[in-house]
Amino acid sequence: MPKNTKVTQREHSNEPVTESVADLLSLEHPMDYKSSQMSMGLSPGSTAPVKALIPSPDPDAEDGRPAWNNKLEYILAQVGFSVGLGNVWRFPYLCQKNGGGAYLVPYFILLLLIGIPLFFLELAVGQRIRRGSIGVWNYVCPQLGGIGVSSLMVCGFVGLYYNVIIGWSIFYFFQSFQYPLPWAECPIQRNGSLAIVEPECEKSSATTYFWYRQTLNITSSIDDTGGLNWKMTLSLLVAWILVCLAVIKGIQSSGKVMYFSSLFPYVVLFCFLVRGLMLKGAVDGIAHMFTPKLEKMLEPQVWREAATQVFFALGLGFGGVIAFSSYNKRDNNCHFDATLVSVINFVTSILATLVVFAVLGFKANIMNEKCVVDNAEKILGFLNTGVLSKELIPPHINFSHLSAQDYAEMYGVIKTVKEDSFDQLGLDACVLEDELNKAVQGTGLAFIAFTEAMTHFPGSPFWSVMFFFMLINLGLGSMIGTMTGITTPILDAFKIRKEILCVACCIIAFLLGLLFVQRSGNYFVTMFDDYSAGLPLTVVVILENISVAWIYGTKRFMQDLEDMLGFRPYSFYYYMWRFVSPAVLVVLIISTVIEMAVSPAGYNAWVEAEGAERFQSYPPWALAMAYSLIVVAMLPLPLVFIVRHFNLISDGSNKLSVSYRKGMMKDISNLEEQDEQRFILSKKLSEAPSPMPTHRAYLGPGGTQEMTNTNYGTSTKTGYQNIGSPESEL
């Protein structure tokens, strides 16, 4: 055997040995060689003395990395991270907007084409390399190490405004402990003996007024900051304290929190579904939701929005998925995890959609009945003043018990007879379908439409408390994943106490988050939501895909998975990773850029005098700020590539190293001799068990030339890195 290889050098060295990530990766979870037919050609169950040939230490325990207490904690963490507020207030809106039940077809197809494969990819690389996003991509391709830094930047941007939404939910949660609910009616202004309804509320609605004026106290433009909103500042502080307590001990604390924060939302959703189905009009809402408009499936916009929703629903590119999976054992079946979490995410979106449209169907019926009553009063007034003839009213219509069908018949007759002057009457059609077609999403759904519907529930405070407590838990689960995506790569790179790092991150984030609790803060939340994550994350994920499938090598990665999982994943993933997913992501990036170029950059400003929203374009400074979010998030990608390409900085491999105990090294130092014994005793080289992956290339003398691997019957080079790469010097 060569005398200058690493294994031989260990036998004669008294110095501590440091393994780089390339060697760390090669350590596999030991097989049960007693029951393996590969063990020196012996039959299964043979008791031949092979123990000495197998290194005893568990490589998962050697690096001192924390681990999940059990598989359930890990699954709940991934579910809690992927299932968030978007499942409740984004997915139902997209269904309604893009063809109802027909939208589910492109969504499910794209979930199979890009969702599950890319989710599986992130789980696999995190579990294989056992590092956060920065460490993983530094290893896979040092020149693309900026992928991890960009992921961290996006996590930071998203975490800043996402926790503000949790703060809003906390405020509404505490406001719900009163009857009647504070947003149930418009406030009354008293001027002596005269009592009038608040004009801004009268022009909008009670829930809209409570949201914009009493909660946000919003200004009329982004230029007018208006100072801090102290109620929202305190709510944001409480939100960051909750997040800090949840993540301060790493997965040891967040894993426990996930038992509640991941499961409780499902309890609330099922309760709302049962209660919603008992409400009048709930079936109308659900039927409207799932009535397919098949022509919508032919529109490119529907497929683009479905791809975007799949992309963000699973949390791809944030680094949280990689961070969580890095705490797994290497033999964990991450393929099963990827499929399970993706299916749970999809089913949760369907469940949330059923709940939302059952409640909105009830609200639509309430609003439609109110419309019928208001317009019937107008018609009675016209009849009493002689504007309309009583002969226009069908004889069977009773104004004291007027149904929607009776009003529709009366409305049709009046419109036909008074065709010339009908517009002057100011009558509304009061069609239930029109109410159901009023699409709302985001804060408009949670804090306006849904809260308004709950005011009509019997025992409305109870349901309001449950709803906003659910939103807090959904947001908290996602924030734990986001914070883990930030702290894990930092803890991997620097020796910092996780408690100190978590507290420091939360304090800094709270101070930066004060931008969003100004009176104009809602406009900045919209800006960050539109610009800080969309395009940067899409670029990050396609680079992740390319670095694994085309630079590292899909065949090599499939072999890694076989070594790690004990079985070879379906060939489906090979073609998805290598061809289909990159193509879909390129199309998604192009369409996103086109949409940004075509759509005017602006926000919906609240106009107090009109009691309504009005679209306004961003001023130059705000537009520069919006585009700078994209630039800052993506800047690490070219910067790291340049400095690594010209060897201006280290590839970071030293920060990914693990120091092993000498006792363990002594066991491993006999591997070369044992490999010779196995080769002699085995019929074929491929039958000899080895703790090193079969595809791992051995380097010849001097470490500059790869020895070929003949395990596949042909001579092929299978080193993890090219000869000239930094890893090839190992």
From TrEMBL:
The chain crosses the membrane at residues 74-92, 104-125, 146-174, 232-251, 263-286, 306-327, 339-360, 462-488, 500-519, 531-552, 572-594, 621-643. Na(+) binds at residues 80, 83, 87, 345, 474, 478. PROSITE patterns: NA_NEUROTRAN_SYMP_1, NA_NEUROTRAN_SYMP_2, NA_NEUROTRAN_SYMP_3. It is found in: Membrane. InterPro entries: Na/ntran_symport, Neutral_aa_SLC6, SNS_sf. Belongs to the sodium:neurotransmitter symporter (SNF) (TC 2.A.22) family. This is Transporter.
